[in-house]
User: Which sequence fits this backbone?
């Protein structure tokens, strides 16, 4: 599965600042989120840093055909609680000799159809993945989310995008991974990561 539906919305009082300044601040915060592990409360001393693991095969479990159940919040960050539902298929195949993979999504519901693709690329130096989404509706790539899987198989990815002219942080999480199922969630934050609103929940089951 992939996030960033409908071009991220289909995917993540004070002085007015110029748009480039807001984007620069969000980019800086996204870099910090990517570089720092989640805080562990109650620890008196930080453990010694573990050597970065090779995550180049972390998406191998997803290769194949899936049935996708999708719930989507079409008006994020507006206070809306109107969710719409879709059902369809996701196809995942390796490309570039397995060093990347391509995801094709096609789901339908009462609100219409979502078709899109995601190219996942692995950076062996940073040991991180970038997830690059494009929808048929716009015909363009959205800004990527970047991250990695931990030793327990949970993937966390962050990026920066805009929603109705506002710069937002994007968080994409892949969890509950088994050989035959997985869960995907996307969330946006308009306040620098203090609060997150989930807007995309998909559960894939292997066909």
Assistant:
């Amino acid at each position: 599965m992939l996030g960033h539906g409908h071009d991220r919305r289909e995917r993540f009082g004070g002085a007015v600042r110029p748009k480039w300044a807001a984007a620069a601040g969000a980019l800086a915060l996204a870099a910090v989120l990517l570089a720092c592990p989640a805080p562990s409360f109650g620890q008196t001393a930080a453990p010694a840093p573990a050597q970065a693991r090779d995550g180049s095969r972390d998406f191998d479990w997803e290769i194949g055909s899936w049935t996708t159940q999708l719930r989507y919040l079409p008006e994020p960050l507006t206070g809306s609680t109107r969710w719409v539902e879709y059902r369809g298929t996701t196809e995942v195949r390796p490309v570039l000799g397995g060093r990347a993979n391509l995801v094709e999504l096609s789901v339908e519901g009462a609100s219409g159809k979502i078709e899109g693709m995601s190219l996942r690329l692995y950076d062996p130096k940073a040991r991180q993945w970038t997830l690059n989404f494009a929808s048929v509706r716009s015909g363009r790539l959205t800004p990527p989310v970047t991250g990695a899987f931990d030793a327990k198989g949970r993937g966390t990815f962050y990026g920066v995008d805009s929603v109705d002219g506002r710069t937002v942080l994007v968080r994409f999480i892949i969890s509950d991974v088994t050989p035959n199922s997985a869960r995907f969630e996307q969330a946006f934050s308009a306040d620098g990561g203090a609060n997150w609103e989930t807007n995309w929940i998909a559960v894939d089951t292997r066909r």
Notes: The longest helix spans residues 19-35. The first strand starts at residue 64 and ends at 72. Residues 8-23, 36-49 have pLDDT under 50 and may be disordered.
